[in-house]
Amino acid sequence: MKLAEALILRADCQKRIQQLETRLINNAMVQDRETPAEDPSQLRLELEDISEQLLLLIKRINKTNSLSQVDEDLTFSDALANRDILHLKYGIYRDLAQAATVTQTRHSKSEVKFNSTVDVKEIQEVASRLAQEHRQLDARIQEANWRVELLE
Question: pTM of the entire structure?
């Protein structure tokens, strides 16, 4: 199985677990002398089964990520960490540029003036560069996901 397929299965398991949680909660209480729409015991068994499948899948994905390369000098683990930091920094720079360009509405003659403390153009350029780096790295990771076999 390819790593990309395992990631799709992981997402599916996570979604199924969320649905089971909702179904369990919805069937936790019933009116006196009524029966639940679904048997909570059966739902719990299904939850345990899917949780075990997810656990094994996550372990294999983590092992694959730590031992496989996106390219010759970058492991999946390092690439994912780099991508996360690029995404984090991009969000901060984007928000900073937005905060520094907020326009003030005039409410009275004694208007308070605000001045930006940062070079907005430079901050926007940094944000754009980070977004581009994030997209490029993400594309490399996605492509490699379909090349790499999931390890046991």
Answer: 0.82
